[in-house]
# Entry
Amino acid sequence: QVQFVESGGGSVQPGGSLRLSCAASGSIFSIAAMGWYRQAPGKQRELVATITSGGNTNYPDSVKGRFTISRDNAKNTVYLQMNSLKPEDTAVYYCNRPFSLGAWGRGTQVTVSS
# Structure
């Protein structure tokens, strides 16, 4: 059973930056596509970044140009660099495998407020 542990969240002002980390257990990490998701209060969970095993990335328009996903297969870790943060980015952020969802971790809270 793959497990994910997210960290790096916090409170920042609009325009600020945060870098999230997700440590994953399991030997198949290096061959699995990974994604970052977020869920704001009262809203459905949404996918905000994906990265394939080969390093190809994809983002929805809402975060494109501001968020960057990366991975370190040697450390079984995926990252999300978030720049130019907006209040609407406030949510709990999770990581998982988009094409083979595992159990959800606890997530990490990101709050963007002045």
Notes: The chain has a mean pLDDT of 94.
